[in-house]
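Quick one, T. Sequence first:
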Amino acid sequence: MIRSIVWISIILSFFTGCVPQPNTPSKSQIQCVAEVIKVEDATIKNYVGTVLGGVTGGIIGYQIGGTKKDNQIAATVGAVGGAFIGSMFDEKDNAQKLTIKADRDRQIEAIVKKQERLFQVGDRVEFSMLNNEVTDVKLVEATKQIMCGRFKPSSIAKQCNELAKAGGNSAESHQVYLGDSQGEFILQLQTFSAKDQIFVIHDNKVIFDTGCIGTNGWKEAKIPYNGFSEELTINVNPNCLKSEPSTQWEFKVLCESKASQNTKGIKAKKFVGVMTQRDYDNATNTWKYKVVSQNNKESIEFDSSTKIMYKNDLISFNVLNKNDVDVSSIVLLQRNYIEGETKNNSVNLATNQEEIKKEEEVKTTNLAESLF
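Structure tokens:
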């Protein structure tokens, strides 16, 4: 009986919206030094009163229930009532909501537990980010320079222009690496007739939400972003009304590089080859690449601030003005084309030219119409 009451109380705590504790140290993708510009009281729910109230109310209800059946009913009612009363004693205003400002007028919000020394406006703080969540906020010396370190892409993130997903009744979450902490991307989606919800998180906040919709065709939206993270988190809440036996959805994330935006109307040359070199230059904070052509007679070397996840893979991309590579046009053709240490040997590549020609003719924008 006691075990049943405990389980009821635990379930009640989940129904009231149990959340993980923020401001816990963990592996980070970026670290920044910034300034606190706003402080508000906040509450991190711990549900201690809710659980204890539920257990106590359940026990009292069971004791006064009478028959075995009445005992069970009374225990359930007591647990619910006790949990409600106990929730009133859960600690409130036990945290601070900080608005933090760094360089480039970038701002982010973080909720931290109250400590002996409370954060104040004007404090210099250091914080980390992981998967678009702020972690490990701590006070630093006021003389420390406001700046951010280099962003480290997560191992699970897909490159923009590479991520295309389809699914059904299961909720899903995906990381997308954009290569920059500010810019614009295109989200193309289709939720058919059964209603689904797709929303995008950047820098610990939702920057786009479809709402609960059935699109009955492809839709698209151009979404600007600006902040600290170079990744997006895209969450899918399928069958959001829970009114259909099954559902289907699809989405794609597309990006256009600054180079391609500035060179519209210039005829691009398609280049096909294997990425044989990818090295990071600490002095310039850029990645240096070398791609060898399919007949081993040409090679292209270029730099980019974006880490491209195609080492030893067969790829194609557009080249503008000799060696001006449009990074956003890179398309994966075959994984692991070079095995082991053969990357330094001569490369003899065979590729399906007709397949590449078809890929050039495909225009994804024909699949979509404006969402707004």
